Amino acid sequence: MLLLQQLLNGVMLGSVYVTVAVAFTLTIGVLNFLNFTIPTLFMLAGMIGWALAYWGLPFEMSGPLPWPMALAVGIVVSIVASLIVERFTFRYLKTRYGDSTEHAIPLVSSLGFLLVLENLVRIGYGTDAQRFPGPGADLTMNIGGIFVRIPQVVSLFLVILIVIGLTWLLKHSRIGRGLRAIAENPDAANILGVDTKRVVPIVFMLTGLLCGLAGALFAVNYGEVSPQMGEDIGTKAIAGMVVGGLGSIWGAVLGGLIVGLIEMLTIHFFGADTVQVAVWGLLLLTLFVRPQGLFGHNSIGKGKL
């Protein structure tokens, strides 16, 4: 029974990894660079949500906000921050330096944004973990001896709906065709009339939305936020993305769930100290045996989405 409980916990935790892994997949699948600000966008939604639910709006403009409204504002902040990153890590540098931005300059500049934003949050709210004032009632169900938290179940279904909707958007909408054209060949996409200055920000907006939702769901489900909360989630989401296959959205889904299950099973059998060894050992094994991952392709960033 305890093993079944851990398997369920692994799936629920994996759903958080899935959302962040899909955000990584969008940027590497379309723009072919690893966006290091993604863990910070995840953290921003949780920390801003906590600050508004605990303190209220800045300058005493309001008292503490209801936690759903606070998290909604946190998600909006993540989207805005992601668009700012797009403006200065991709559009500005691309305009100024052209092809020299592939791929080191956007990567390093996104790492700079990660450090700046994370340290600003630490300066503003401290480094300690904070208890998120989420649902006050006990929302846990006992099903045959298995304990299931309703927010986690809702989160899992919400993640599935988001991935299905994103897949439909990429496959059947005009925006999706533009994104796939840019992923295949940016220069050819421009010749065919795809306006990259309008389409590329959509990638960052979706990235901010996904990370914001993941951060909000994490805050509600686990009841704790901190300026460091994105670091562990981000690295394990990267592991899930690689295991599932770089550039494959459904690969990111499967990889995130696998990493969540591996983490919980490792804790169950060997203890929490061995989690990092198990997760990164799985990553290295994947790279040795099947570098493209379970559903990935050999040519990263070309025709993945």
Automatic annotation (TrEMBL):
Acyltransferase in keyword set: no
CDD domains (UniProt xref): TM_PBP1_LivH_like
Compartmental location: Cell membrane
UniProt keyword S-adenosyl-L-methionine, yes or no: no
Record keywords, A-Z: Amino-acid transport, Cell membrane, Membrane, Transmembrane, Transmembrane helix, Transport
Membrane topology: Multi-pass membrane protein
Highest taxon of the lineage: Bacteria
Main location: membrane
Transmembrane segments: 12-34, 41-59, 65-85, 105-126, 146-170, 199-218, 238-262, 269-289
Homology family: Belongs to the binding-protein-dependent transport system permease family. LivHM subfamily.
Protein name: Branched-chain amino acid ABC transporter permease
Annotated source species: Hoeflea alexandrii
